[in-house]
Amino acid sequence: MRFGAVGATTTVVPEAIPLMRIVLESLKKRIADVTHSSPFRSMAVVFEDNPRAHSFVESYFGDFRVEKSGEKLPIEFYFMPKRAMFPALEVADFGKFHSPRKVDNSFLG
User: Fold this and answer.
1) SS3 letters for 44-88?
2) Three-state SS for 39?
3) Cα–Cα distance, 51 to 82 (Å, whole number)
4) 46 strand-pairing partners
5) Which of 15, 23, 49, 80 is the most buried if burial means most Cβ atoms within 10 Å?
6) pTM of the model
């Protein structure tokens, strides 16, 4: 399953809160929501290897835990370089280049 959370430099956020925090907190909520409605018993989260994002990811996901049926769900976090061409990393490119205003109708089928 692939999903992501995106923000843009034009996203309006309170001045004291970094945009990256809002994006990563949204992603954490999405992970928790998916966890509760899916049958899996463990999870791996893969981030595109980006030196600018490492500290944010480590900071905001360092203590992230999800419980399912009263038990802690094992979650592993990884960084993967873009050059690995792993399909899940393409989510970032989709969000970057296909904003809802620019999605071509042929893409929607």
Assistant:
1) EEEEECCHHHHHHHHHHHCCCCCEECCEECCEEEEEECHHHCCHH
2) coil
3) 12
4) 78
5) 23
6) 0.65
